[in-house]
Amino acid sequence: MGSVNFDTSVRYLNGVGEKRAETLANMGIYTIRDLLYHFPRAYQHRGNVRFVAEAEDGETASLIMTVASQPHTAMLKGRMTMTKFSAFDGTGKCNITFFNQNYVSKIFTVGATFRFYGKIQRKGKAVSMTSPAFEPYTEGIALPEFFPVYPLSGNLTQNYMGKIISSALTMLNEAQIEDILPEKLVKENRLPSLGWALNTIHNPMSYELMEKARKRFVWEELYVFALAISLSKKKAKEGNAPVFAKSDMDRFYSVFPFSPTNAQRRVIGEIEADMTDERALGMSRLVCGDVGSGKTMCAAAAMYMAVSNGYQAALMAPTEILATQHYNDLGVIFAKLDIRCELLCGSTPAAKKRIIKKGLLDGSIDCVIGTHALLTDDVEFGNAALIVTDEQHRFGVMQRSALGDKTKGGHILVMSATPIPRTLALIMYGDLSLSYIDEMPPGRKKVSTFLVDESYRARMNGFIEKQAGEGRQVYIVCPAIEGEDEGLVGFDYHPGDSRPKLKNATEYADTLQKLLPNLRVALMHGKMKASEKDKVMSSFASGEIDVLVSTTVIEVGVNVPNATLMIVENAERFGLSQLHQLRGRVGRGQHKSWCILVSDSKGTEALSRLEAMTETNDGLEIAKKDLAIRGPGDFLPDKSGNTRQHGGVAFKAVSLCDNTADLEAAFGYAGEVLSLDPKLDNPENQAVAKYVEEYFGSIRSSVN
Ligand code: ADP
Ligand code: MG
Fold it and tell me: How many CA atoms lie within 13 A of 206 on its CB side?
């Protein structure tokens, strides 16, 4: 058997031919390292063993049973076959069915014992399982508790991924793999070896060992992240933005239907001071303001100043929905100011794109609003001098710098609804000045927030009906899209947790529609195409939908003033800052608004976090609590697929529970290394330099 190292192509593995290699490449997997760093997205908790007698309908668990009857295969319609047999443990009997897997009749001989894992069905006393996973079981020999579940693509299967990863692990020549972490970091944090950690994260014998392995990868990510940020900050400092003359702000304010709040005036003043200062290197400013505090006006002011000075400006939003909304709102304002503004998103028709790109290059378009589509290489500006990014925490930091490159060092304005506490902001955006919009526009009403459990379901549905009956609209947010993740255990699992079941948006919408047939219920989730999501969102905005059941895709920025009720299911699964964002979707019009957090969690920590939501509407207060409880996870790009869709850097191993201290320490280690080797040229830093570069590179490739 040959040996492989990190740089070996996956083609070298048995079972990886041209076709499969292509599918793997679609997931960014080219080398053995890519493959081994393709971590499970969750684990099946096969160690969750139940007795037949106690197994509940619908629960996903293991049953250890002995085969009781010879498997019998029957032909069904078409070419389908069905193989059935029964098995038992000390407490009862279970019928097991497989479809189109005749070979299993050879495996399941009467008297042999297996651990069966899957969804359990129960009708009265009759218990059954369909196509369970299984492993031979011998009394006294431990089977792994956790089974990896990998992110997949194309026609790849879990089995296949498991197999090629195992073979890569056995063939890996540990002497040759490059550890990117400085020895000091490994020692001081008592991290396991890379080889051990790789083996363990893919095949953990226990949750504790998996955690230990994961900790190492968390550090790798933090360390590479810290190096990349530190290097990009240096790069950013090289820019030179044009100095603007003062603009006619009275004219600007006069086109709005309202007057600015004092806070908006102040922040716009700070923006103006940055961009008109001859001695400064240009503006690099982060504007933090709670949801609804009116950040858009500040962005518009900055763009107006750039255009009045004869330059172009760009506004980048993390989703098409949000970009479109900005375009609709600001388009009206800009038209009154004779500013020509266009919208450029991934879904913009090619012909239209071409025209916009031409206009941006020849300077006939003043402003462009868009998504990360703005970052593609063929978008070029004639003379852009300002880049605004909205809802910054949704973007990778590197994307910001990629957009900055397009202005050749222009002014940068970043807007965030997550009130990033100052210390954390300094670490992550050390080069940015901070403005806080600490005042809400007048007339904003507090959103009354309640925490309820399952026993309120009927009353809550009644309330939905009542709101819709009065012509109002309702958001319902669920943590999952479909039922597929039932019974899986993620990185944020705690042993001994008995967690409430996850509500999934698809089933929820179905059930609710049946229950309330007179209401128009719609579904929206992250797996839908951007154009489909936009369609649903705009029908909701125009009042054609009463109840929108969705995943957190609606989290950011969308403005539907007629929506007055926000219901969050499995609220225990969300961070406080995220809940605050979600709650910010309602209370935007003149009607009284409510937020109902539904949780059946018994965990006291979870409940006290949720209680905090019912006590305050103040975003900064909530952010501080969140940071204290969970660490800076919400401020970092997260590990879920979501961030990657937005083109951010997805952390694979960093969980939301990691604390600020580790992040700070990572910056410390990075600083030490960079002080000796500022450009990562030294031989001992070659391995990490490659990944830092990839970090920049992966942003370029993931945004196209
Ligand atoms: P966010 O800070 O969440 O981006 P927006 O800029 O979207 O907030 O503003 C939220 C809502 O408040 C919008 O409907 C906007 O028109 C309105 N708004 C903004 N500034 C003011 C103001 N000074 N007075 C009244 N309404 C305002
Ligand atoms: Mg906004």
Answer: 6
